[in-house]
């Protein structure tokens, strides 16, 4: 079957837009093909700084013929309905229609419409101009004389040429005949802007890609990335250095060049006196260059790796020199910023936060820092942190936000706080908390282990969550502008991975009051509302915990089963209960006890609904007439005592083992005992005994929440 080659050749496509643009082109063309009944075998899109390319393989040469039966009005129906039917179906008269017999509803006219399929070449000629004109660029422009005309083409940068060919691999392909804004589709493209700018005639994808390569254009972005990375590593290793790899920078640089040429430059040794991260951010952000380290010390050396887009006649000397001049100037600025920052103590910056609004309903950044300091001091003993160090760390943790370096490179916030804190002689734990209190920022991010960092990180995230819950700014659907889901997951990981026990409800309740104390004017709650917000926030944590545990292979329903118990706001204990419960339910005892508990719960639900009352309270032992009742009652008493005692000691494995002893008594009860006895008192007593089964298992979890 034939293949399609489409290239849209333009002045420039920004690197940040290329990957999405290639995917959009593939999606828009293939979706339209399928909508036209043209099912293809495969498609792949590419992008360079000057072109979007799409190849689609195995497209039928034409659409299939379409046969359709369309039902019309009743025989003898109104003339207007009949005329509308004829017009809609293209029939000349009713003689061309069939009659469908229906004994119940009457006879109807049926039109058999046959629509011959169109040649794919014609379909492409119609659809491609529409796709080009409606292409979803984030930003686009008009240009030239035509720009003033209505309907002028808008593109990311001026569009210069369109290649569109369609045909069998063994034959000369056809050009898809169409034009967009005066640009006619053809078979001509262009190579590298400087090294091979002459026009190139292409036929299909294979020779197109080969001819582009000969004209100094590497079409595949991944191919450009592989070249850059391999050559950069080789250059560094040749001098016994190591490339600091950066996937984001690699993606960006590959979008800036069509023919990557990797070179190495250097900068003055004196700049190594500033933190390596500042050097890296300066060189990365301003010149899109990689930095290099000494593998023996892991510290940066005064070298950088750049990617040019040309094979220069002088071997790249002028290109290197130009980059060195710019980098020298930018590093001079960075060094000045860093040295200027060191002249001001971190605590001297605190006053400025009082005039910076954190949120109109939650007060200033200064008020927020005071809240975090107070909360961190309360959390410190719970995580084994020194209270005074924690208070100091919380007070200074945000101060680097007002420094010159962080103003220039926001991505260095926290890290620079650590450097500045160490420079002014702060304790190592206090300094580390400046960087680590933002962590973890995602599932792959490291979780702090230093107790001071943990306390400040928890306080920072809990303050955010409690505050936004109080003003009812909660995540909705996919919207989470304040990253509250990330904050909750951060709290979960900080507690669980460090194995810290904290009762969150009491922390939430108490911290809610801090918003009034610090004067966040628009936040006022009654005591009951505070508790409602705290309970609601805990439910949010339960949902986040379910997501995390599910990603780790645990069952979400077990989290529900544990959280359903009162007072389950210690996330570490919840996780440990879930782990133990999961292991228990994988055993035969666990599976059978769950089945028995579910059976008891179902019977109770049915009978309580029918009788309009709950069967709670202790059963009357005097009404036991069968050994199985007595055995079950005795087993329940023993299991309640043993499982509750084990759970109180946080020995959940032993609690599960105790619950397993209930299984034979439950099985025997259901085998031998008729619950709905004819004697009303006996029936009620047995229903109360079933409720005791349900209560006994609640020492560990609410089994009714567990899926079968």
Keyword list:
708 residues; alpha+beta; 5 domains; four-stranded antiparallel sheet; 18 strands; 49% helix
Concise synopsis of the structure shown:
The protein has 708 residues and is α+β, with helices and mostly antiparallel strands.
Could you please describe the fold and organization of this structure?
With 708 residues, the protein is an alpha+beta fold. The protein has 5 domains: 3-61 and 120-214; 66-115, no CATH class; 221-325, no CATH class; 347-505 and 532-553, Hypothetical protein af1432 (Orthogonal Bundle); 580-705, Isoleucyl-tRNA Synthetase, Domain 1 (Orthogonal Bundle). Helices cover 49% and strands 13% of the residues. The protein is built from 24 helices and 18 strands. Strands 1, 2, 3, 7, 8, 9 and 10 form a 7-stranded mixed beta sheet that branches. Strands 13-15-16-14 form a 4-stranded antiparallel beta sheet, sandwiched between helices. The chain has a 3-stranded antiparallel beta sheet with strand order 4-6-5, with helices on one face. Strand 11 (188-190) and strand 12 (199-201) form a beta hairpin. Helix 14 crosses helix 16 (504-517). The protein is flat.
Roughly how much helix do the residues carry, as a percent range?
A: 40-55%
- Summed up, the helix count is 24
Largest sheet report: 7 strands, mixed
What distance lies between the first and last C-alpha atoms, to the nearest angstrom? 51 Å
The count of β-strands is 18
Number of domains: 5
CATH classification, class level of the largest domain:
Mainly Alpha
Over all CA atoms, what is the radius of gyration? 36 Å
Strand content: 5-15%
Morphology: flat
Class based on secondary structure composition and strand pairing: alpha+beta
For the residues shown, what is the average pLDDT? Answer: 92
The CATH architecture of the largest domain is Orthogonal Bundle
- What CATH calls the topology of the largest domain is Hypothetical protein af1432
Uncertain runs are: 517-526
